[in-house]
Structure formats: structure tokens, C-alpha cells
Specification:
Elements lengths: L4 E2 L21 H11 L4 E4 L1 H8 L25 H13 L9 E5 L16 E5 L3 H5 L9 E6 L19 H20 L5 E7 L2 E7 L4 E4 L2 E2 L4 H13 L11 E4 L4 H10 L10 H9 L6 E8 L3 E7 L4 E2 L9 E7 L7 E10 L7 H10 L8 E11 L15 H6 L3 E5 L5 E2 L18 E2 L8 E5 L4 E8 L4 E2 L6 H22 L1 E2 L8 E4 L11 E4 L6 E2 L21 H5 L5 E2 H19 L7 H10 L1 E5 L2 E4 L1 H9 L38 H18 L28 H13 L4 H20 L8
Helix pairs in contact: 1-5, 11-13, 11-18, 13-16, 15-16, 16-17
């Protein structure tokens, strides 16, 4: 029997609130806290001179330092942030000789960006002179070159060179880091950037920072009133630097009024009312052109097909945050291939690792092997010369075992080299002397001597683009329960095909990676189809015994199995991937179908978002999700069983004392399907050697030796064993997917009885 499991990587952080979380519109405080947590081990300080030499090469040899003496004398100290900014802006804008060249500083602390749904506003920034932000004194994330934040004193300094993780200890400093991280995230979201710069004023002190998808490198603080030339040289250099040095992606060109691209997109925008009802791709493309977001021409360089150009508007998906892949997806208009005008373009910063394959190559291989229900790769390639550089500023020290080396390398990670690693405890106790805060310790099962090695926790990311033929719609927009089940079954079939035909496991099954292809009369397509997408993190069976490629968590938190969430060192098995499909079904059913759960938000948060804190900003599986999977019953937090309904529940009578008649509800058949699957996975957890939790208060009863030969009606314990064997057989790929193939008829039968979901 094949050991169909793959080395996993430790869960470190819960995901940011967003499209898959219970709180899709988090408050400002929540957003800042979450973004700040993602920056742990992703911050690094450099001395001012070293920072300037690394990121803004000298172009200011003609600057006379003496001419700027006293430039910031009128900036008040200790009076408040808003009082500081106007004299600061006036000093730089009015300086002679001119410092900012073709740019200007704008005060934007009063008005938010019109197209920013979160209504964020920076204190100010450096903008092109013709930017609307200058005249309107309004934040404009699409055109800001350098954002500036003012704080009245050093207690709000967002950076700290003296902490092991680069993460400040004081709450006021952490809040400030979260605040500027949201601004940095917005610049990446609204522009096509390789990196960008920021300035934070702290009373009379200042710091510079450079942000990319690997992390942020900040300068040592300096007194800009005593040493004004340090700040002058920064603005002088950045204002006269090339677009590439300032961080602009030179393969992304903004579409401006009067250009041929602009006229072409305007013509498409005018087609809105003439498009056929089932031409969902064109309708969604036209919708992406509306609003205040800029339009862009993007170039994809393919080694086989050469360069291909595409026009895009608002992304259909944009990952939040600063560090990481920063994935964005667009419905794109092909300029280079008129025969296939509308395609899907994925723009991301893939993690660079020796054994990682390009997603386009993975898809092409799966396409060639006949894997069903996956996208068709058209063009793909790295964006030449666009690689993160923050990680290159980290410098290893020769002796990783000495405390001094750890102090000098606050961003180093201490890994354990061990076989069959198991945690020393379920919480944070027992941390070794040279383990990082926030990094749980593991020792081998045979108590071998621990060995250590130091790694940079900043990862190398390469800009990458992929174009595929199919344009789907999000799974959340399923029109009926029948379609939901059918589409998930198609995705499971793709999972089966990929493993059996190409020996590839997906390893990131989530609701965002399953798309719906609706019927289309023009194309002769009569049925809904599901696609399993985003194969970037997939892994071949031949790599199953290799070390994890990425030191951060692989997968999407909300849909990972209890097994992989609870055990950071656990290997991902087919059973874990199939459990993810079940979590997707529960997510969609709870969120969009009628049911008896009274508090959807509480359920969604507790089941999908919640986690148990292990170390600072590091989590394992939440208690409620584990409880449901162990019990095999879907219930709310009060223990009340959840029923799915064909139609919304009638309202409860205001005065229930006047009636004794119970309300009649009509159960939705998807409920029976979910319960059946829950019981299967519950049986699996009963057979696992208590790996899921070290502090469980239940144990597995002994199994009868003659179970297989018994002709008697199975007991409750025997039923558990039979169900568990069904799930444990998923350790064999053929048995796993044969079981699913047999059940697919049941999936379809139950799904077809479903009614149209009641949208909230």
C-alpha cells in the first residue's frame, strides 16, 4: 500500500480577515493587528548610510549640505501630528534648490481614497505634480510614490532593532506598525510594484523603509532637525531615480485617456447592455472596468510563445497583506490573440525554492496527462529581473549556538533537525535557550541530541504571471445545492485524476481554488462544471519523503483538516485533502443555504477562523472545529443540531405561549450528506493514535479481534471501526477515489433535490 502523504509545513499564522473569513469587513483595529502579526520575522534594520547605499544609489553629488541647514526648524515638536505636517510639507516643497524635482508632497490626512473600501488615509505622501491627490489633498493609493506617517514622539516608533523578531514589544509601537503595514498593503494593491518606500516621522526623529514581498528593511532613526541633509538626500534621490528604482513594475503600463488601449476598453465598456445573459465572462470583464480603479496593460513573457500583452481593470481577487505571494487575478483582454479575446490572468510573487515548479509547467503537465476539470495553461513566465531583495540584507553569523550570534541575527530561525518530530508540550512551555520566541520546540521521538541551524525567515519571491483559457465564477455564487455538490464532486475528480495520472497532490484545497464554469449556449455547454485551480503549491509523490520546501504553512487555514492544523509536523494525506472538500461544503451550506443555525457569524468564526494560540501569533486548530470533527455531528456552539432546509424558516411567533403547534420544516438533503461525511471523518480521528490533541479527555476503546469474521449486527464500536476503515483506506489513492466514485451517485442524487439557495 502506498504511503500517500506529503511532508507538511508548520502552521504559523492565522489568515488575514477577508473573503473566506467570518469577518469579511474587519474593523481597523483587527486589520492592523493581523497585518502586524504577519510582519513578525519580516523586519530588518540597517544603519542609515548602509540603507541608502543599498536602495538609493548616490545621484546627489551636487547637493550642498549647508544650503539645507535649519530646513525643518519650523516643524513643531510635542504639539501633535497634524500640527507637524503642514510646516514639514511646506519646507520640502519650498526648498531651494528644489528637492522634489517633478514631484510634490501633499497633505492627505483629512480625506480617504475614494476607491478604498476600508477608507484608509495616510498623513501625506510624495505624488506626481499632476496627481489629483495634490489639489484635493486626498489620499490616492494608485499614484502615491512615498507615503509618510507622522507620530508625535518615539513611543510610536513602529520599528525596533533590539527585538529578536524585529517586532516591537510596546503596544503603542505595535499599533503603529500595524497602521503603516495597512498603508503598505494598499500601495501594493492599487499599483503594480516590485517595492516602494515610506517615511515615518517621530517628533524630531525619522526612519526610512523599503517594502517588498519578502519583508521591510528600515533605517536607523536619525534626528532630521539636527541632520536635515539625511532626509533631504532621501527625497532628492528618490525623486530623481528611475521608475524601476522607485519600485514600478516596468511590464505594467497604466492605460491613460487618449491612448488606443483606452479607446478599446471604452468600447468594451459600452457593450454592457448588449451582451447575452449567459455571456458571463464578457459581463464580468465589463464590470471590472467600472469604478475609479486604474486600467493596465500587462506583459506576459513566455519562453515558447514570446511576449503577450493583456488589458485589465479591477482584479477579481487580490490577496491582502505585504509579505507573501500577493496574488491577484484578472479577467484579461488579449491584445496579442484576438481569436481568444478574454482569458484569466494570475499575477503573483511565487516563492523561490530549488524543488518548486512553475505553476504553468505543472498545469501543462497535467493537461498533457489528461487530468479532468483543471484550467488549460496558455502562457506563463517569470517577470525578468523582478526578484525580492529584502532577504539579501540578512547576514548569517558563523556560530549559531552562541547567544551573541542570536542577538546579532534577530531574524534568524532555529530549526530542529529531527526524525519523527513531536512537540515537547501542547503549549509554549519547554522552549530551548536558542529557540526563537514564537517558534515551538520539537525533539525527535528517540530523544536524539538536538542539532540547530539558522535560516533567514525572509523568503525569496519571484514575480510571475500565468494565463489560462477558462474564466470561472467563484464557488460562493453557486445557484443551487445541486450545483454546489456537483461542482465539488468535479473538483474531487480532478484531485483523483491528478494523483492517479500524474502522482501530484494539490495541497491547498480551498473554496477560492474551486471555480464554477456555467452553461453557455454559444459554446454548446449545457451543464455546470467545477474546476480545481491554483496548483502552485502542489507536490509530486516522488517528493513525499523530502524536507518541506517552504518553512511557512502550506494551505488555506479555514479549510485545512483538523489533523494538519493540530500537528504542525504532520504529513498531508489524501484523507486531509478530502476533509478540506467537506469543510468547503459546510462553509457554503452554512453561509448561503437556509438552516436552523441562529448565529451564523459565531459559527463561522469558531469553526473556520478560530485557532488556539501556541506562541505569539502562532496557532493550531481551534477547539470548536476539533469538537465537531470528533463527534461527527454538526451543531452550533450551544450544542444544538443544525438542520439544512429547502426553504427559509418561517419567523418564530412573537408570543410562543399562545401556541403549542411546532413549526414544520422541510430538511434539505445536503444535510444528510454532510452528516454522513462527518461520521466518516469522526471515525478516522478515533483511529488516529491521539495525534490530534495531547490533552484530549477521551480514549479509544479496544477493537474486537474477530470483527471481520463476525456475522452479528455490528455494534456501535464496530460501526466506528468500519467508518474509520473507509477513511483510513484513503491512505491508498486507488481505494480513496474508488470510494468517492461509488459515492458520487449519492452526491448527485442528493444534490438534485436541492432548491435555490436563499441569499442573505
Amino acid at each position: 500500500m502506498a504511503n500517500n502523504s506529503f511532508n507538511a509545513t508548520p502552521p504559523r499564522l492565522r489568515p488575514l480577515s477577508g473573503i473566506f473569513s467570518a469577518t469579511q469587513r474587519p474593523g481597523v483595529a483587527t486589520l492592523r493587528r493581523e497585518l502586524r502579526e504577519t510582519m513578525i520575522h519580516k523586519l530588518l534594520g540597517l544603519p542609515y548610510d548602509e540603507w541608502m547605499a543599498a536602495f538609493l544609489p548616490a545621484n546627489d553629488t551636487t547637493v550642498d549640505d549647508a544650503s539645507f541647514d535649519g530646513l525643518f526648524d519650523k516643524v513643531p515638536i510635542g504639539s501633535g501630528e497634524t500640527e507637524m505636517y503642514k510646516p514639514f510639507v511646506d519646507a520640502l516643497n519650498g526648498a531651494e534648490p528644489a528637492i522634489l524635482d517633478r514631484f510634490v508632497l501633499a497633505k492627505t490626512f483629512d480625506k480617504t481614497d475614494k476607491s478604498d473600501k476600508d477608507k484608509k488615509k495616510a498623513d501625506g505622501g510624495m505624488y506626481p505634480r499632476d496627481s489629483p491627490a495634490v489639489a484635493q489633498e486626498r489620499t490616492d493609493w494608485a499614484s502615491v510614490e512615498v507615503f509618510i506617517e507622522c507620530k508625535s514622539n518615539l513611543t510610536c516608533d513602529p520599528y525596533d532593532e533590539d527585538t529578536l523578531s524585529g517586532h516591537p514589544y510596546a503596544n503603542t509601537k505595535r499599533d503603529a506598525l500595524g497602521q503603516i503595514a495597512t498603508y503598505a498593503s494598499s500601495v501594493f494593491e492599487f499599483q503594480h510594484r516590485t517595492h516602494h518606500f515610506s517615511v515615518v516621522l517621530l517628533g524630531s526623529w525619522a526612519r526610512l523603509a523599503r517594502w517588498d514581498r519578502s519583508g521591510v528593511i528600515f533605517s536607523s532613526k536619525f534626528d532630521y532637525k539636527q541632520e536635515p541633509t539625511k532626509l533631504v538626500r532621501f527625497f532628492w534621490r528618490v525623486a530623481r531615480a528611475s521608475a524601476e528604482v522607485r519600485g514600478h513594475d516596468t511590464t505594467a503600463t497604466r492605460v491613460l485617456p487618449g491612448s488606443g488601449d483606452y479607446e478599446l476598453l471604452q468600447a468594451w465598456k459600452a457593450k454592457d447592455k448588449t451582451l447575452a445573459d449567459d455571456d458571463y465572462v464578457a459581463k464580468r470583464f465589463v464590470k471590472s472596468l467600472s469604478g475609479d480603479r486604474p486600467w493596465w496593460r500587462l506583459t506576459v513573457s513566455d519562453k515558447m510563445h514570446g511576449s503577450r500583452d493583456f488589458l485589465v481593470g479591477r482584479p477579481t481577487f487580490a490577496a491582502a497583506g505585504v509579505v507573501g505571494r500577493g496574488t491577484r487575478g484578472y479577467i484579461a483582454l488579449s491584445i496579442s490573440d484576438p481569436a481568444r479575446p478574454l482569458v484569466y490572468l494570475k499575477d503573483c510573487w511565487r516563492m523561490v525554492q530549488d524543488r518548486s515548479k512553475l505553476e504553468g509547467n505543472i498545469l501543462s503537465d497535467l493537461n498533457e496527462k489528461g487530468v479532468a476539470n483543471i484550467p488549460t495553461a496558455l502562457y506563463h513566465g517569470d517577470v525578468e529581473g523582478q526578484l525580492t531583495v529584502s532577504q539579501t540584507s540578512w547576514k548569517p553569523k558563523p556560530d549559531p549556538h552562541t547567544p551573541s550570534a542570536k542577538e546579532e541575527n534577530p531574524f534568524a530561525e532555529v530549526d530542529d533537525v529531527a526524525v519523527e518530530a513531536v512537540p515537547t508540550g501542547s503549549d509554549s512551555a519547554g522552549q530551548s535557550e536558542d529557540a526563537d520566541p514564537g517558534e515551538p520546540e520539537y525533539v525527535d521521538a528517540k530523544q536524539k541530541q538536538k542539532q540547530t541551524k539558522i535560516h533567514c525567515r525572509m523568503k525569496t519571491h519571484q514575480h510571475y504571471r500565468l494565463v489560462v483559457k477558462e474564466v470561472g465564477i467563484p464557488l460562493q455564487e453557486f445557484p443551487s445545492g445541486r450545483v454546489l455538490v456537483r461542482v465539488i464532486a468535479d473538483a474531487i475528480a480532478a484531485h483523483e485524476d491528478a494523483y492517479n495520472k500524474a502522482e501530484v497532490m494539490h495541497r491547498d484545497v480551498s473554496i477560492g481554488n474551486i471555480l464554477i464554469i456555467p452553461p453557455n449556449a454559444k459554446q454548446g455547454k449545457k451543464e455546470y462544471q467545477g474546476l480545481l485551480t491554483d496548483w502552485e503549491l502542489s507536490k509530486r509523490r516522488s517528493d513525499e519523503n523530502a524536507e518541506p520546501r517552504h518553512p511557512d504553512r502550506t494551505g488555506t487555514w479555514q479549510f485545512m483538516s483538523v489533523h494538519t492544523l493540530s500537528k504542525p509536523e504532520a504529513q498531508v494525506q489524501i484523507a486531509d485533502e478530502l476533509e478540506s472538500f467537506l469543510h468547503i461544503m459546510i462553509y457554503c451550506a452554512i453561509r448561503y443555504l437556509p438552516h436552523t443555525c441562529d448565529d451564523v457569524g459565531e459559527f463561522m468564526y469558531s469553526f473556520f477562523d478560530d485557532g488556539r494560540l501556541v506562541e505569539e501569533a502562532e496557532y493550531t486548530c481551534g477547539y470548536f472545529k476539533r469538537s465537531v470533527m470528533k463527534e461527527g455531528q454538526l451543531h452550533d456552539l450551544a450544542g444544538k443540531r443544525i438542520l439544512f432546509l429547502r426553504t427559509p424558516r418561517p419567523p418564530k411567533p412573537k408570543d410562543r405561549s399562545t401556541t403549542t403547534k411546532k413549526m414544520t420544516v422541510h430538511p434539505h438533503p445536503i444535510g444528510g450528506l454532510i452528516i454522513t461525511l462527518l461520521q466518516w471523518f469522526s471515525a478516522r480521528y478515533r483511529l488516529l493514535p491521539l495525534e490530534v490533541d495531547d490533552d484530549d479527555d477521551w480514549e479509544v476503546a479496544p477493537f474486537p479481534d474477530d470483527l471481520a469474521d463476525s456475522d452479528e449486527e455490528p455494534s456501535d464500536q464496530s460501526k466506528v471501526v468500519l467508518r474509520a476503515e473507509k477513511i483510513n483506506s484513503f491512505c491508498d489513492a486507488d481505494a480513496a477515489h474508488e470510494s468517492l466514485r461509488q459515492d458520487r451517485g449519492f452526491l448527485a442524487r442528493t444534490g438534485r433535490q436541492a432548491t435555490r439557495p436563499a441569499r442573505p
